Amino acid sequence: MPKQSAKYSAEQIQVLEGLEPVRKRPGMYIGSTDVRGLHHLVKEVVDNSIDEALAGYAKDVWVVLHKDDYVTVADNGRGIPIEIHPKVGVSALEVIMTTLHAGGKFGEGGYKVSTGLHGVGVSAVNALSEYVRAEVRRDGKEYFQEYKQGKAKAKVAPIPKNGELPFKTGFNWKVQNGTKITFLADKTVFSAVTVEFERLEKQLKQVAYLVAGIFFHLYDERSGEQRHFYFQSGLATLIKHLNRNKALIHPEPILIHRMIEEVDVEVAIQYNDSFAENVESFANVVPTTEGGTHLTGFRIALTRAINDYARKTEALKEKDENLTGEDMKEGLTAVVSIKMDSDKIQFESQTKEKLGNAELQPIVAQAVKEGLEVFFEENPQDGRVILEKVLLAARARAAARAAKDAVIRKGALEGMTLPGKLADCQERDPANSELYIVEGDSAGGSAKQGRDRKFQAILPLRGKILNTERARLDKVLEFEEIRALVIALGTGIGDTVNYEKTRYHRIIIMTDADVDGEHIRTLLLTFFFRYLPEVITKGYLYIAQPPLYKVQKGKDINYAYSDEEKNQILKTLKIGKDSVIMTKSPGLIIQRYKGLGEMNPDQLWETTMNPENRVLKQVTIEDAVAADEVFTMLMGDEVPPRKRFIQTHAKLAILDI
Hints:
Heterotetramer, composed of two GyrA and two GyrB chains. In the heterotetramer, GyrA contains the active site tyrosine that forms a transient covalent intermediate with DNA, while GyrB binds cofactors and catalyzes ATP hydrolysis. By secondary structure, this protein is of the alpha+beta class. The chain is built from 21 helices and 22 strands. Strand 12 and strand 13 (286-287) form a beta hairpin. The longest helix has 31 residues, at 380-410.
């Protein structure tokens, strides 16, 4: 990437507002104050180094996790300017670190392409940290400044030779120029201040794919672990990673790279033989999880290009209807990345999850259409297999529509007649209604008797449902238990899905605490992830936590949800460990629940269904790529990845014998 103007001084720093809003409403600026928000702090500091890389200066980015929860991010870019800002009268470094919306991302002469549209970046990190230290190396000189909760402790000064750090580190930052930021998240703001190594590793690896040619170095001084990432081919490597457990229908990804009207468009496409779609999109290296105009442009171009190719090769005759966007999705893995002037980019929210620039839709569409036309012309064999895949998906879609129409004629798929096995609730407001999906008729009977019928509905499922990872929609709809579930939910499915019609905003999977129960739960999660994903992303899906044990001594009854909780109860009852092992304690009865059906309705209500006592786990998708990999590996057709997983994790298995 060509370097931008090398001039980077106090004159390029614009100042907009102070940091008090960040401390008052941290969620507005970093999304949350849990571990996700903590990792967002790391991302904001890393983004500053990425901006130097995108501008053509930094070649390395270091992230170091120290003991006692300190984190350091460093680069070998130009270093933040330290001279006095002409308008404010203090160092430009202090302006950037202590003022919201201050940085080289606004106005002329700073960054052309930037990851941080709003400029809250490192200043927000400063506001939400109990300690921050900034070090700058410029022109062979070293400067530093320290801060507490966003306020400078002293003026910017040269680093003393024997300066004491409040944390121990072995990290030796050997650079001529660059910036190093160390922070300790504020415990009064965050519920968690310990950065997770594996989570951070995924964050950095994703960025490394998108900023090809930059070295990323991750060190964990707590454990001694380290990781290093460098991808010269960028998106080509990422697309191969996304498809690593899947059978490919063409060996090499389609790579498209165009510069149109000062917008850098980069796209990678590769089809596999699965039935699911996996599309990632980015804008200025920021993941746009809700898509936006660049993704819309990509989908339009993909549909048009494949339709044109189908007409050109006469795979579609004159009388045939065009293939649809839905037909393109089956087995599609793609990455869409745009980079543009950060002054012009428009996101639809502070957390930058959806891109809003209307002009990007035709730009991306043009780039993708032209790129695909060249690819099909130069690779006719790959073009044919992609076309065959899409045509097969179109025939399956027609079969699924016929199957769905048949279901509707028989009794309704979309809400006209609820399934007979459903014990519905009286409440009609979805926000106040919940559906328990229960394993087996026995447990279903107990749940129906024990529930609060005002707001709790029960749907018992008989046996194990179909593995939907390996089935198209037409086959899925032939399975009676899934059909009953879809009807009860009211969402519809396939091309007519409407999440606004979801009849319950708490959908709770309740299965036995054994291997079969876990398998049924996994099958249900696979179905929701592949066919009704927004049920998960909207936060509607939960997993019930029935107790593992009933511990009774005399009239004293306690329920334990884990072995640790059981042991704690036994300590409370003053029962020694040896007595428990020998079951010699007078009047002590420990019952291990193998299934929900072993509990009577009152027990099931009290332990698992009563909102005042129950424990529910909400199902979320924090990392869609990782989730896709897991479902593909565990539930897909490819045996070797699953075999490797079992062999690797065999010692961790808890056998319920």
